[in-house]
């Protein structure tokens, strides 16, 4: 293996989702490992994100429902601040939460500008398809 091949392997590793890679040949061993990265599954690009379901009843706040089954997270990582808070105004496209399904992190985005009235799901809880997640008031 020449230096060009090694450079290509390193570049491909940096663009992959692998956390470690080890290559061995008769004369040497190459070990690549990501440093200080949390072991989180990849986030699905917005073009592949599920669409939030929402229910509207007359003279009451809108309910944003879960578009899939998974684990509900209000924060992008355990030590990060929450995406939303009660009373906060949200713009169209803002991230409301993450729902982890099959080791994929799916960002749930607001379909319309609104104010968060109530968070109906618990951090780290399993949610079902169609389960109410947020009570919101359209702006």
Helices and strands in order, then pairings?
Layout: H1 3-14, E1 20-24, E2 29-33, E3 53-55, E4 62-65, E5 70-73, E6 89-90, E7 95-101, E8 104-109, E9 114-119, E10 126-127, E11 132-138
Antiparallel strand pairs: 1-2, 3-4, 4-11, 5-7, 5-10, 6-9, 7-8, 9-11
Question: What's the short version?
Answer:
This protein is mainly beta. The protein has one helix and eleven strands.
Q: How would you classify the helix and strand content by structural class?
A: mainly beta
CATH homology group of the largest domain? RNA polymerase II/Efflux pump adaptor protein, barrel-sandwich hybrid domain
The side-by-side strand order for the widest beta sheet comes to: 3-4-11-9-6
Fill in the CATH topology of the largest domain.
OB fold (Dihydrolipoamide Acetyltransferase, E2P)
Poorly predicted ranges: none
Q: How do the SSEs run, as a string of H and E? A: HEEEEEEEEEEE
Strand runs, count: 11
The helix tally amounts to: 1
Strand content: 35-45%
What is the overall silhouette?
elongated
Overview features:
139 residues, OB fold (Dihydrolipoamide Acetyltransferase, E2P), 5-stranded antiparallel β-sheet, 4-stranded antiparallel β-sheet, 11 strands, elongated
């Amino acid at each position: 293996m020449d230096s060009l091949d090694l450079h290509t392997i390193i570049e491909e590793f940096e663009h992959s989702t692998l956390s470690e890679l080890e290559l061995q040949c008769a004369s040497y061993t190459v070990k690549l490992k990501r440093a200080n990265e949390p072991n989180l599954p990849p986030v699905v690009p917005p073009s592949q994100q599920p669409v939030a379901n929402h229910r509207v009843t007359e003279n009451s706040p809108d309910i944003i429902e879960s578009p899939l089954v998974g684990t509900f997270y209000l924060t992008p990582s355990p030590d990060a601040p929450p995406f939303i808070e009660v009373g906060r105004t949200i713009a169209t496209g803002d991230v409301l939460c993450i729902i982890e399904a099959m080791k994929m992190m799916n960002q749930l985005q607001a379909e319309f500008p609104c104010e968060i009235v109530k968070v109906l799901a618990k951090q780290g809880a399993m949610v079902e398809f169609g389960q109410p997640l947020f009570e919101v008031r359209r702006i």
